[in-house]
Amino acid sequence: MGGVDLTYENTQRELATDKGVIRYHEAGAEHDDVLLLLHGSGPGVTGWRNYRGNLAFFAQTHHVYIIEFPGFGVSDPIEGHPVLTAGKSVIRFMDALGIEKADVIGNSMGGVVGINLAIKFPERITRLVTIGGVGPNLFSSSPSEGLRLLQEFTDAPDREKLIRWLNGMVYDPALVTEELIEQRWSAAIDPEALKTAAMMYGSAAFEMQQKFMADSDVPPYWAMMHKVKCPTLLTWGRDDRVSPPDMALVPMRLIPNAELNIFPKCGHWVMIEAKEAFEGSVAAFLAR
């Protein structure tokens, strides 16, 4: 960006669609290759909070868009399950801006969204990078420790539960600053964000999901990962307590062109906690 400081204000954009406004951040406009950054879920999450530290790096080589999914308090909410509405919003976004195909980085839920897009729209996704979150628990308990903490917060939100959950997200507790706690708390109690969280992580929603999977003829998304045609880089924190690294084994085996990079002394937020190593690894993968 020629030395321009990438702030929230100077990168924020709005896109009006027939399903409400999608808000996003844009940088690296002089590049032809498009990179979409898809955020995760959890109390107070936004795409900007997930990726603001990585935006300047990837804007050196790509035209980068951080997309804010509907229902997380930034873009306009729409009816439906957040993972499904997120995927549809990405296609709607790409169509509206005339983006035929793009590289994708997806954090946690954003990685699941990315894999679903690569299965359903293989011609639109050129390369895929996931950060934790994809695949089934093989050896670790389900829900994991981090998801249990998230469930406890979602069922009866309070500040102490939020702090416990945030500490479960990282390897280094020094990352859980007062500023981070305040940011996440004020965003987490947004009515739309609370509604989305209840649909995804409330104990009632979890029980419903388990029942649906037991009674359904529809295979889980991870059973369809052999259909992902694009080169895929799975990145993982070795100390991830939300999606423990044993989850990586199924996508690593099923996705035909998958490779796995595990970062030591790192929790669920690989792009934040292992920032330089993550950026270097992803840059090399995208440049191939």
TrEMBL record:
Keyword Hydrolase applies: yes
Matches recorded under InterPro entries: AB_hydrolase_1, AB_hydrolase_fold, AB_hydrolase_sf
One Pfam family here: Abhydrolase_1
Key words of the record: Hydrolase
GO terms for MF: hydrolase activity
Gene3D superfamilies cross-referenced by the UniProt entry: alpha/beta hydrolase
Source taxon at top rank: Bacteria
Domain (AB hydrolase-1) ranges: 34-274
PANTHER family in alphabetical order: HYDROLASE, PUTATIVE (AFU_ORTHOLOGUE AFUA_2G14860)-RELATED, MONOACYLGLYCEROL LIPASE
Protein name stated in the entry: Alpha/beta fold hydrolase
Organism of this sequence: Gordonia alkaliphila
